[in-house]
Amino acid sequence: MKPVLILLPLAFMLAACSDDTEAPLPPPRPVKSLVLEETNSVPLSFAGTVEPQIVTNYSFQILGRMISRNVQVGDPVERGTLLAVLEATALEQDVQAAQASLVSAQASANNARVVEQRQKGLFAKTVVSQAAVEDAVQAAQAAQSAELRARANLAKAQERLSYAKIAADYTGVVTSTAAEPGQVVAAGQTVVTVARPDLRDAVVDLPASAASGIKIGDPFSVVLQSDPTTVVKGRVRRIEPSADPVTRSQRIRIALQAAPAAFRLGSVIAVSLPDTRPSELLLPASAIVTRDGKTLVWIIPDGTDAVATREVTTTGTGDRVAITSGLKRGDRVVVAGVNSLTDGQKIRVSGDLK
Predict the structure, then answer these.
(1) Are 202 and 222 in contact (CB under 8 A)?
(2) Of 9, 136, 275, 326, which has the fewest Cβ atoms less than 10 A away?
(3) How do residues 132-153 score in pLDDT, each as one tens digit?
């Protein structure tokens, strides 16, 4: 029985030693990370439309009832094409009356000149007095003035008659109409709008920050949105002097050079501006930790599976912040679960953010 008594204390000692063994280490904490890359300058793209450089709103110069409009929207017109006509009966009568007045004035002037010549001949024979000659000369001059006045009245009546018609001044296309036959239109009221399709602009509204560095003559590439493979060159032709009061954007007009027919008036286009901002190291705001007045991030040093803190300086607000010091390109930074990490803690990268 003595050997059994000796073994019992030994068993109790072994049991006590087993209770003092270390607890197993916690598993590595899964985190998401991001490898820092400098942002590249990428073109800034802005949408716009194709518009004509030259647009004319045709209207009558006198009040009247329009009896015909000879064009519709989309119709091509040549120089001299008759666009619309007013009722001109009264105007034609004015011309006829002016013509009759001119014929009468011409006859009176011719008769006065004959009388003047006859009186001068009689005066040479001392048949009539000097006063009679002077009266004849004065009558001839008055008749000549009346003829000139009648001629001017006829020209004025003919000009007013021409106001009853609108003709195109150049080859173009009708883009809109604003009056119908039978309608009484006021002087200056737009009836037909014609544009030159051969001279086209890409019209784009840019924010002030993008428009500030643009000047007249700058080259641009213009892309047709319906067919991105169709690209034409253009140069800035005009920069609007003031910004839009609502959007605060500034409109620029880019003259298209040798644009194909696909760049129809009203087509949607896009122009690209180079981004001149310097490259930046950007991080999601969720990666930033603030402790004891310091701005920190958790990094994963190369070749390790543990995290360490790194003090950084940042600029900007919002979802992403720019790193100005403390990190470099290629550093791996923890971007999710940063508030529950400790220095030197083992981690397992469960995914990378792009």
Answers:
(1) yes
(2) 9
(3) 889 999 999 999 999 999 999 9
Contacts of 296 (CB under 8 A, 6+ apart): 288, 289, 290, 309, 310, 311, 312
Alpha carbons 119 and 131: distance in angstroms, whole number = 10
pLDDT band at 1 (very low <50, low <70, confident <90, very high): very low
Question: CA of 226: how far to CAs of 233, 237, 245, 251, in Å?
Answer: 17, 24, 30, 22
CA distance 342 to 334: 12
Predicted confidence (pLDDT) per residue in 233-252, tens digit: 999 999 998 888 888 889 99
Residue range 257-286: average pLDDT? 81
Query: Rounded to an integer, what distance in angstroms lies between the CA atom of residue 170 and that of residue 304?
Result: 77
Q: Which of 29-33, 36-40, 297-301 has the highest mean pLDDT?
A: 297-301
Phi, psi of 351 (to 5 degrees): 175, 155
The rounded radius of gyration (Å) of the Cα atoms in the chain is 46
Q: How far apart are CA 264 and CA 74, in angstroms?
A: 12
DSSP 45-73: EEEEEEEES-EEEEE-SS-EEEEEE---T
Question: What are the Cα distances from residue 228, in Å, to 40, 41, 167, 221, 265?
Answer: 23, 21, 39, 11, 17
Distances (CA, A) of 166 to 279, 338, 344: 59, 76, 87
- Asked if 346 and 353 count as a contact pair (C-beta separation under 8 A), the reply is no
Contact indicator for 70, 82 with CB cutoff of 8 Å: yes
Say yes or no to pLDDT of 158 above 70.
yes
> What is the three-class DSSP state of 154?
helix
Neighbours of 165 (CB within 10 A): 14
Question: In this predicted model, which residue has the larger pLDDT, 2 or 65?
Answer: 65
Distance separating alpha carbons of residues 265 and 56, to the nearest angstrom: 15
